[in-house]
Amino acid sequence: MVVALPIAALVWSSRSGGVSGSFWDAITNPEALAALKLTLAVAALAALTNAVLGTITAWVLVRDDFRGKSLVNATIDLPFALPTIVAGLVVLALYGPYSPIGVHLAFTRAAIWLALLFVTLPFVVRTVQPVLLELDTEMEEAARSLGASERTIFFRVVLPTILPGILSGVTMAFARAVGEIGAVTIISGNQPYRTEVASVFILNRSQAGDPAGAAAVAVVLLTISFVVLLAVGAIRHRATRYERG
Amino acid sequence: MPMNNTRKMTLVAAVVAALVTAAAAAAGTNLAIVGYSTPKTVMGKIIQAWQQTRDGQGVTFTQSYGPSTDQARAVANGLKADIVFLSTGDDVNLLVDAGLVDSKWNRQSYGIAADTVVVFAVRDGNPKHIKGWADLVKPGVQVVTPNPFSSGSAKWNILAAYGAERRLGKTDKQATAYVQQLFQHVVSQDTSGSNATNTFLSGKGDVLITYESEAINARLQGKNIQYVIPRQTMLIQLPAAVLQKSSNKDAANNFIRYLKSVPAQELFAQYGFRPVNPTVAKEASVQKEFPARPGIFKIDDKYIGGWRQADKVWFDLKSGRMVKIEEAVGGPSSG
Q1: Domain spanning B116-235+293-334: which CATH class is it, in words?
Q2: Which one of B37, B73, B144, B150 would you mutate to disrupt binding with A, by most A Cβ within 10 Å of its Cβ?
Q3: How many helices (H) and strands (E) does chain A have?
Q4: Cβ-contact B236, B139 below 8 angstroms
Q5: Distance between CA atoms of residues B109 and B304, nearest Å
Q6: Is the minimum CB–CB distance between A199 and chain B shorter than 8 Å?
């Protein structure tokens, strides 16, 4: 009831398509299409980047020992707790016009990507970390004693085992990135057709008195996220098939 | 240090007195004000002042502030309100359409509680020499203004730009072309006026088109912000209205009347709003703080024709001029 009811209401209110005509008109409106394309592309890019960054982070946290490790470990979860508006402000302070490090990326598409990286990193780290912890190092040692290089060991032994974890983290990161608004609205500039993501488009539409048009685009986002979450389910199923026998 | 008995008694008496006062107030009238963001501080001061008067004694307030259109929509969707104080007549019309505000709200004794004008906030020392509308479309000038479909502030800005051009003798076509040219210089379109101010304060852009009251408000909060009032600009009239279904109509009407009194209007002036009370408007300090401009026009100007007309021509989501301008400036055909 908690989940299904609001979703049903959303679909119901989107069916008329709002002031722009039919449902189809609402989602093929050029500004909506531009926003949807941008959202999917940047979210996918951010999720894939985090596949690499998140896996490396998880690897370091599991396999290496260093001073302040528990501190770093706790820091990883901060984006979960932080209102994403704050994440936006952080990115703006770092890469904005008054950047202390001289990087001026705010109000570009790259800034959206950076904000999404920050917000979604913990999803990958937290799904890969437990898999790495459970990983049996004996397999790696066996490979090593058979003369395999470190490279081969990683790509032939370690990666296949943790891949379902990475994929599952990436899909969650992607779904989260698709719906993100707080951080993005602060650093993107929200220029229609250029840096306006779907969530901001939806907000603008609903404030402009077109809740049905907003709902129509939301249904598209929701459908995409749903497909992605289904994929996560499938991956989890596959990943655990050995344990279930 | 342990308290002696006299102190304990004083403390108990104070607590009891506080509780009794609170209970008395709770039993009295409570007015719910739903307003837009900028007047939050000044409204607090005006309420305090009103509570010192005979009418306002014992009346308590529930206050909510946020983006104007959001607030109007919340009220339309059932948020309890006795009084609304919004940034555009457009948002009051939204409540008129919902049957919550009298359609003649603007013709009654109240209506507009304070004024402000559209100004250009600029960087320290005005390095790009921004004086009038023509300077905004010079090569290399970056402009920050909110999204015209979600922000009331942006609507004022666009109508001010168009109206100013008309007053400078341009035709409808030329003035509309100017707005399009202006949007080619726009580098950020935030979802609200206050977000646009934050974007400008973060260092983006050379000019922020905003309200004079918003600029003064930012300055009062210690932000380093300078502004230029163009010769041709829009007088922004800030409407306050009583809800038809208010159960405290008398108190609400009294409060709205008080908003236009000398003490309340002086507070408005102190916090950056142009007073509508003629006595206060004539005060020397007020005239100095809020210089007059020869080319000031209002929303019901013949070139704009009031909110309903402006909404249809400029901000209709399907056929409005801003839809076409946004597409021409940023869309696939713009290259």
Answers
A1: alpha beta
A2: B150
A3: 14, 0
A4: no
A5: 24
A6: no
Question: CA of B62, closest CA in chain A: separation in Å?
Answer: 24
Residue B200 near chain A (CB below 8 Å): no
- The span from the CA of A37 to the CA of A43, in Å, is 10
Q: Specify whether the CB–CB gap between A192 and A125 falls below 8 A.
A: no
Backbone phi, psi, residue B31, to 5°: -105, 130
Closest-CA distance of chain A to residue B193, Å: 13
Q: What angle do CA B6, B8, B13 make, to 5 degrees?
A: 95
Contact indicator for A46, A113 with CB cutoff of 8 Å: yes
Centroid of chain to Cα B126: 25
CATH of domain B5-114+236-289: 3.40.190.10
CB pairs under 8 A between A and B: 93
Distance, in Å, from the CA atom of B69 to the CA atom of B154, rounded to the nearest integer, reads: 12
List of residues 6+ apart from B2 with CB closer than 8 A:
none
* CATH for the A27-244 domain, from 2.40.50.140, 3.40.630.30, 1.10.3720.10, 1.10.260.40: 1.10.3720.10
DSSP secondary structure, A100-131, as one string = TTS---TTSHHHHHHHHHHHHHHHHHHHHHHH
Question: Three-state DSSP class for A44?
Answer: helix
CATH 3.40.190.10 domain locations along chain B: 5-114+236-289, 116-235+293-334
With b meaning 16 or more CB within 10 Å and e meaning fewer, what string describes A137-148? Answer: eeebeebeeeeb
Distance from CA of B191 to the nearest CA of A (A): 7
B297-306's contacts with Cβ under 8 Å and 24+ in sequence apart are: B297/B163, B297/B167, B297/B232, B297/B233, B297/B234, B297/B235, B298/B234, B298/B235, B298/B237, B299/B89, B299/B159, B299/B234, B299/B237, B301/B163, B303/B162, B303/B163, B303/B166, B303/B167, B303/B172, B303/B175, B304/B159, B304/B162, B304/B163
**Do B204 and A98 count as a contact with CB atoms less than 8 A apart?**
no
Among B100, B97, B93, B41, smallest CA distance to B68 is for: B93
Give, for all 245 residues of chain A, the pLDDT tens digit.
Answer: 777 888 888 888 887 656 656 788 888 889 999 999 999 999 999 999 999 999 999 999 998 888 888 899 888 888 888 888 888 888 888 888 888 888 888 899 999 999 999 999 999 999 999 999 988 888 889 999 998 888 898 888 888 888 888 988 999 999 999 989 989 999 999 999 999 999 999 999 888 888 888 999 999 988 888 888 888 778 777 766 665 55
Q: Which amino acid is at A19?
A: V
Contacts of B189 in chain A (CB under 8 A): 189-192, 196
Question: Is A106 close to B67, i.e. CB distance below 8 A?
Answer: no
